[in-house]
Amino acid sequence: MIVDLPPGFILILGAALLPLFRGRLRSAWILLLPIIGFVQLLGLSHGEYGHIAIFGYTLTLTRIDKLSLVFAYIFHIGALLFLIYSLYFKDNVQHITALIYVGSAISAVCAGDLVVLMIFTEIMAVSSVFLIWARRTERAYAAGMRYLLIQVGSGLLLLAGIVVHVQQTGSIAFNHLGLTDLGAVLIFVALGIKCAFPAMHNWLTDTYPEATVMGTVFLSAFTTKVAVYSLARGYAGTEILIWIGAAMTMFPIFFAVIENDLRRVLAYSLINQVGFMVAGVGIGTEMAVNGAVAHAFADVIFKGLLFMTMGAVLLRTGTIKGSELGGLYKSMPYTATFCIVGAASISAFPLFSAFITKSMVITAAASEGYPLVWFMLLFASAGVFHHAGIKIPYFAFFAHDSGIRCQEAPRSMLIAMGLSAALCIGIGIFPDALYRILPFTVDYAPYTTTHVVTQLQLLLFSALAFAFLIRTGIYPPELRSVNLDVDWVYRRVAPAAVRFIVVQLAHIQSFLKHTGRVIWKTALMGPLAPGSIANPFAGRSTIGTFVLLTTLVLLAYLVLDLF
Amino acid sequence: MKSSKKKYWLDDHRNVDKVFYALCAVCAVVLLAEFFYHKHAQLPWEEWFGFFAFYGFVACVSLVLIAKQLRKVLMRREDYYDR
Q1: Residue A429: pLDDT above 80?
Q2: Measured distance CA(B64)–CA(A419) in Å, rounded
Q3: What is the pTM assigned to this prediction?
Q4: Is the CB of B10 inside 8 Å of chain A's CB atoms?
Q5: CB A376 within 8 Å of CB A244
Q6: Which of A22, A261, A387, A506 lies 20 to 30 A from A283 at CA?
């Protein structure tokens, strides 16, 4: 029975059958999967399903409650939009892995316990790397390896955390954990890596922009949101999350301003947006958690939309560097329009989606007595408009005319972007539809005169600042460049350190070789006539010393050879 | 592909200026709107005249100025990691 399958399995199993289809049937099959999955989800009532007894524990495949449902809904909606976008490509590798990735993300947010959660996040890690590798370049291969190392590393940390947690508490249940025991702390750090906490964030900005056109769109939505879901489930009200989240909203925007790769700019702003969610989870009141979850919901669509528009630009022009682009509104007017809608949504303009979601977190920060956090979040709100809201559309579609004339995006992409844009506006105009499915009852009215006017002031004066800086020439130009980030440590410093150590070991090795020869000569050759071939086992008085010394040298030699 | 001959409205610099002046005008309107409604503030400084306008402008200018300085430390050649 299809209803008995855990949510997400329809996409995973459907992916396996994909190679059987060709042409229109293939497209229909791809789009049918998230729709059937959504219908199945609607038929599920709250509760736990699919108990499996293994190693003395009972695993619970599925738990349906309000928190898991809202994430499962948006993952299905996102999947459908992104799959429409991806129909232009006829690449089974990407479609199969994307479906498995989304399916396991849905299963992860519906997971009934920690072990099942870990299993599905591991499947997500392994399947999603193919969306990077499918670019089929040397650069993408290396980026994929870095991605996989960190994802699997965080998976191992999660496993270690679960093992320790089970030893300490005897339970694999995934409810509120808090930072109470070592296991829960390890789980927290593992989720922090997936959530792109400061200094653990760099895998995201390093590797997402190296993925394929459709790959980056998928990647942007699911891994970080599963982490946000898990934090909301296990660590709501953990105070340190407020500060981590606030830091996440702040630091990436500085990088985003000077970054030339426009998909990397969006990757930085992805961390900035996840920061709002993390801060909301940290504040932990009903309003704040509602805000975090609602913002995750809106973010899947508007961030997906922005990545879709930049993907279309990359597809049609062959580049995504701000320094090479400009004036594309002439060639891609629809894509430009949809990009502006996405930009207005992420910037939280009234009537656009983030206006009704992000403000819940900011309001909660003020009402719960975190004025400094409030200042940080407000700074980040102005900053996100600046770097994502203006910079992305400006340098791609306007600025100076690059002279590039290309085709408008393919039809399937335009349909997906149009639907996403419509949803961004729909959520902004009719917030109650989203508010109704949030985990807690919403007691918040976004459209007050104060909120609308103050938000418009914040955003329009940010725009004025941008215009002022551009017109005076103070604004830093887009330059072909890379900017160092934490990845510098493992892409430059660590390899250099290893090289240094290897060279030093080689020195020691040759020294030992030399010493060995000296010992050989003094212990054995010395007493004999020079030039004659010595028999080391000839019975001489120094032979014991000789064997001992030689053994030591050989041993050291052997150990060093291991490196 | 060849660049088209078609002239667009924004190709004329005077029109870009018009957009800028329009933005200035809208900014003035939302700032002056302060006089016409009662603000519901959670934090004391929210009540100051034009606080959000001022904060938005200053935040963005300082963001860009700091980021410009960051470039001096962080920016490398495009092929830095490929060499």
Answers
A1: yes
A2: 34
A3: 0.89
A4: yes
A5: no
A6: A387
The position carrying tokens 């940290």 is A282
Under an 8 A CB cutoff, do B60 and A383 touch? yes
Q: What sign does the dihedral A338-A339-A345-A349 (CA atoms) show?
A: negative
Which pair of tokens denotes residue A410?
Answer: 């393919």
Residues of B in contact with A471 (CB under 8 A): 20
> What DSSP string describes A193-262?
HHHT-TTS-HHHHHHGGGS-HHHHHHHHHHHHHHHHHHHHHH-TT-HHHHHHHHHHHHHHHHHHHH--BH
Phi, psi of B39 (to 5 degrees): -80, 130
Confidence of residue A529 (pLDDT cuts 50, 70, 90): very low
Q: Which residues 54-83 of chain B have a CB within 8 Å of chain A?
A: 54-57, 59-61, 63-68, 70-71, 73-78, 80-82
Q: What is the mean pLDDT of residues A540-559?
A: 74
Q: At what angle do helices A114-133 and A138-169 cross, to 10 degrees?
A: 180
Q: Please provide residue A542's backbone torsions phi and psi, each rounded to the nearest 5 degrees.
A: -85, 5
C-alpha distances in Å from residue A442, one per residue of A69, A342, B34: 16, 25, 28
**ipTM exceeding 0.95, yes/no:** no
Residues recorded for chain B: 83
